[in-house]
Amino acid sequence: MDSRTRVKAAVAHKEPDRVPIDLWGSASRLHNGLYENLCPLLGLDPMKEKARPGTLAEYVDYRISDMFGVDFRHIVIGKPVGYKSYIDDKGNAIDEWGIGHKMSDAYNTISFHPLADPDPDRLDHYPWPNPTDPGRIAGIADIAKDWYENTSFAITSCTATSGFFFDFGQYLCGAEQFFTNLYLEEYFTDKLMDKLEEVFTALHLHFLEPIAPYLEWVEFASDFGTQTGPFISVELFRRFFKKPMTHVFSAIKKKYPHLKIFLHCCGSNIVFIPDFIECGVDILNSLQPLAKDMDQVRIKREFGDALVLHSGVDIQHATQGTPEEVVAEVHRAINAMALGGGYIFAPANHLQKDMPAKNFSILYNEARRYGQYPIG
Q1: Count of H helices and E strands in the chain?
Q2: Mind giving me the DSSP string for 121-138?
Q3: Which letter does DSSP use for residue 240 in this model?
Q4: Helix, strand, coil percent values for the chain (each to nearest 5)
Q5: pLDDT for position 196
Q6: At a CB cut-off of 8 Å and minimum separation 6, what does 226 contact?
């Protein structure tokens, strides 16, 4: 069974020959430090070209994918040509949203929030990004077509934006102010969500137009969970975020009905899963095993008929452990979620620089070995 057929079977909730394996997707990359440590062990020179410059996981190296039987290729949105980031007088790198960034210990942090003042009138005149900037899609149709016609890999899009409604509310307003706005500035928050919906819808339809025929799914990311519980109540999710998320997903499915919706959501988010399904989510990623209430056996039992489960391999402790602990974590995740199909193997988020490079090979080799159906 080739990779594309294998992935299609899993997404259809059928058991393929083995569990599909993912790497270099929206939440399954390698921190720069890990990548640089891994390449010598694999006999590779690090890539000179950076697929995602300025991020903590800048590289996409499909040589590694091919060594370990990874089943995917991923299309990354291009940079706008109509906007160039700049450094302001306080050292903030200002992106096309007007949001400021600084690096802290090799991690990107948000350092300036342009909509910290909840003035609804300002939203009408705010310089929103141009969602149809031609730089976003330059060259991606040729890449997708070549992969589709000349390889058997499953192809997906990576996230077009780093976050979604809930996340951009915090980026633009600041986390404390945004959470305050949910209670005290409802009109402003509704208007902000409407503006974001316009931009996100237009941006994704523009991004997908040249590549949709070749894709299995389109990826989104929004973190509603912390380690110990959800960021907000289900009631607040339904009040402010469920409708705009549904509208964006529906617009995509209306134009491209074959595409599945993939959502990355970190932390403890089980209380939102029924609403995610109603929003139109088909594939749920992260399934962070050490977060509160994220029992993967329960999630598979209760939601496995409606959702494809993607990833769920612990990166907080297991991947930093002994070889035996890494192998045990592979077995645990596959045993919890792979029965009957509908599961794709990957780490619960980007593999970090504190992971011993030798553990990467153990992780992916064991996934390919142990993930053969019938499991066990």
Answers
A1: 14, 11
A2: HHHTT-----TT-GGGTT
A3: I
A4: 45, 15, 45
A5: 98
A6: 267, 268, 291
Do the Cβ atoms of 262 and 219 come closer than 8 Å?
yes
Quick check: 56 and 30 in contact, CB under 8 A? no
Token pair 């290729």: residue: 73
For the four alpha carbons of 18, 22, 27 and 28, in that order, the dihedral sign comes to positive
The first and second tokens of residue 174, run together, are 């600041």
Q: Which residue has the tokens 């998320």?
A: 245
From 310, 165, 349, 347, select the one nearest 248 (Cα to Cα): 165
The partner residues of 347 in beta bridges, in order of sequence, read 313
Average pLDDT taken over every residue of the chain:
97
* SS3 annotation, 87-116: ECCCCCEECCCCCEEEEECCEEEEEECCCC
pLDDT tens, position by position, 317-356? 999 999 999 999 999 999 999 999 999 999 999 999 999 9
Q: If you average pLDDT over residues 221-237, what whole number do you get?
A: 98
**Secondary structure (3-state) at 74:** strand
Q: Which uninterrupted H or E stretch holds 287? A: none
Sheet with 283-286: list strands edge to edge. 72-75, 154-157, 217-221, 260-265, 283-286, 308-311, 343-344
Compute CA 62 distance to the chain's CA centroid, rounded to the nearest angstrom: 18
106: pLDDT strictly greater than 70: no
Cis peptide before 374 (omega within 30 of 0): yes
Q: Amino acid letter at 319? A: T
Residue ranges with strand state E in the chain: 72-75, 86-87, 93-94, 100-104, 107-112, 154-157, 217-221, 260-265, 283-286, 308-311, 343-344
Q: Cβ–Cβ contacts within 10 Å for residue 27, how many? A: 23
Q: Is the pTM of this model over 0.90?
A: yes
pLDDT at residue 210 tops 70: yes
